[in-house]
Amino acid sequence: MRHAHTVEQVRAAEAELAGQPLMDRAVAGLAATCARVLIRRRGRVYGSRVLVLAGSGDNGGDALFAGARLARRGAAVTAVLLTPERAHPAALAALRATGSQVTSDQEVGLADFSRADLILDGIVGIGGSGPLRPAAEPYAHQPRRGVLVAVDLPSGVDADTGEVAGAALRADLTVTFGTHKPSLLIDPGAGYAGPVQLVEIGLRPPTAPVEALQHDEVAALLPRPAAESDKYKRGVVGLLAGSERYPGAGLLAVAGALHGGAGAVRYQGRAAEEAVRRHPEILLTAGRVQSLVVGPGSGEDTAESLDDALASQVPVLVDADGLTELARRGPRALAGRSAPTLLTPHAGEAARLLGGDASAEQVAAARLRHARELAARYGATVLLKGSTTVVARPDGTARVNSTGTAWLATAGSGDVLAGLIGALLAAGLPPFDAAPVGAYLHGLAGRLAAGSGAPITASDIAAALPAVWRDAAQGDRPQEGRPQGRRAGNVAGLGD
Ligand SMILES: NC(=O)C1=CN([C@@H]2O[C@H](COP(=O)(O)OP(=O)(O)OC[C@H]3O[C@@H](n4cnc5c(N)ncnc54)[C@H](O)[C@@H]3O)[C@@H](O)[C@H]2O)[C@@H](O)CC1
Ligand SMILES: [K+]
């Protein structure tokens, strides 16, 4: 599990360890990583050109101290001070003691930015607020050929949310201290971080408000049939999906559910004839179900299907047309539910559910905030789809998934996901497990289907599910180059 803590939690955990050399530990890890990067790229640290961008706080201090360590190994280090009168005094003295160049001339800094082998972004860390200050902003747009290592997090990214208010520095690698920050796991911020390396400094933060399941946790959660299993023990999922206008959505939801480990799929949409022709194993009769999926391609049947689903005593997943209808009815429509409800909107549907309080673009730019807001308003678990999938509970706890690939953005992809998660719900997983496990498998299936990069169809995603399920069920740690998260292996050799 990757745990991500808020700035407030990090500060409190740091306060508990007052007097311990936290900064030394952070700097040692940071400098060791930078040295490894230089050795990989240039064969040695000695003679490498290193640029330190140092802001006014401890983040700048970390970068300056790390620069001093690299200078002592023979690197040619230049430090550019963004706020010269407030640079970390001890760290600046340590760097000066190595004879390294220190300047506050941003023209020099920008020129060095383009030339350096390695750049340390120590402009601002967890003490940041708002967009980058004017002195720092040009670095976000400056071309470079070297590796940019973000210290703790990329400057310009909001630590707690991953929101990017203006420009931000795009890192090849982030070295973060003590714990992950939510912004390192959630886009758009995560997209600026590159692979993330965690340096342990002894912090003991409380329960994480944001976490990301990894291979082992997914393996532990995957339902497995036992010797005495029958279809009801494994779980029967009911699909209220597919209409005369949109029969394909129903078929894709069936495909997702069948590959999601359901004991049986009970199909109750208008594409029954075609569905049973393609998937002879499905049931068309009415009968007992342990979860319901309502909405994919429901078309003209949506209102009635949603009524039926919400009146049931089983977990219900509402997707697509079901969400549009739910947005029309508002949160009160879920008030009488005794069993869990899971909503799976994309940004546009989320905007609709929020009743016009945010646009789709605003939802996508502030994914965690809006997923939490929706979960709280509707009293339901919410899976917000997109470049990072965020699953939020009404109490604000969240799980994020980044196994996905942009190739997943294809028609019908969400229908497969709905069926898949519906099957996991039928197997008895609570929504807060079923949703991230489904997103994890779906993302990996998209990657597997796309291979080294090719357009895929939703049917390809469904077809790839058994292979990724097999792989995930083994629960081994992903090898280097195998996707554990979208970020892993982005830059060859930088992620370890
Ligand atoms: N809290 C901890 O447990 C530890 C923190 N460490 C380091 O300390 C950092 C936090 O240090 P600080 O609290 O001094 O805060 P920062 O160094 O993150 O930033 C504070 C300064 O940045 C400026 N600033 C704020 N927003 C800005 C923006 N948008 N653009 C440009 N400048 C901006 C402010 O003037 C402020 O003085 C961490 O990110 C980490 O690098 C580590 O040394 C290890 C331990
Ligand atoms: K930084």
UniProtKB/TrEMBL annotation:
Q: What are the recorded GO MF terms, alphabetically?
A: ADP-dependent NAD(P)H-hydrate dehydratase activity; ATP binding; kinase activity; metal ion binding; NAD(P)HX epimerase activity
PROSITE patterns registered for this protein in UniProt? YJEF_C_2, YJEF_C_3, YJEF_N
Location of the YjeF N-terminal domain: 4-209
Q: Which Pfam families match?
A: Carb_kinase, YjeF_N
Catalytic reaction(s) noted: (6R)-NADHX = (6S)-NADHX; (6S)-NADPHX + ADP = AMP + phosphate + NADPH + H(+); (6R)-NADPHX = (6S)-NADPHX; (6S)-NADHX + ADP = AMP + phosphate + NADH + H(+)
List residues binding (6S)-NADPHX: 58-62, 125-131, 152, 249, 297, 346, 415
Q: Which SUPFAM superfamilies match?
A: Ribokinase-like, YjeF N-terminal domain-like
Q: Does the keyword Metal-binding apply?
A: yes
* Annotated binding of K(+), by residue: N59, D121, S155
Q: Which GO terms describe its biological process?
A: metabolite repair; nicotinamide nucleotide metabolic process
- Cofactor comment in the record? Binds 1 potassium ion per subunit.
Q: What is its EC number?
A: 4.2.1.136, 5.1.99.6
Q: Where is this region: Disordered?
A: 472-496
Asked if the Swiss-Prot or TrEMBL record annotates the protein with the keyword Transferase, the reply is yes
Record-listed AMP binding positions: K385, G386, S387, T388, T389, G414
What cofactor does its activity depend on?
Answer: Mg(2+); K(+)
Per UniProt, residues of the YjeF C-terminal domain are 214-472
Q: Which UniProt keywords apply?
A: ATP-binding, Isomerase, Kinase, Lyase, Metal-binding, Multifunctional enzyme, NAD, NADP, Nucleotide-binding, Potassium, Transferase
Say which family it is in: Belongs to the NnrE/AIBP family.
List the PANTHER family hit by this protein, alphabetically.
ATP-DEPENDENT (S)-NAD(P)H-HYDRATE DEHYDRATASE, ATP-DEPENDENT (S)-NAD(P)H-HYDRATE DEHYDRATASE FAMILY MEMBER
Q: How does it assemble?
A: Homotetramer.
Please give the function described in this protein's UniProt entry: Catalyzes the dehydration of the S-form of NAD(P)HX at the expense of ADP, which is converted to AMP. Together with NAD(P)HX epimerase, which catalyzes the epimerization of the S- and R-forms, the enzyme allows the repair of both epimers of NAD(P)HX, a damaged form of NAD(P)H that is a result of enzymatic or heat-dependent hydration. Bifunctional enzyme that catalyzes the epimerization of the S- and R-forms of NAD(P)HX and the dehydration of the S-form of NAD(P)HX at the expense of ADP, which is converted to AMP. This allows the repair of both epimers of NAD(P)HX, a damaged form of NAD(P)H that is a result of enzymatic or heat-dependent hydration.
Name of the protein described by the UniProt record: Bifunctional NAD(P)H-hydrate repair enzyme
> What's the source species for this entry?
Kitasatospora kifunensis
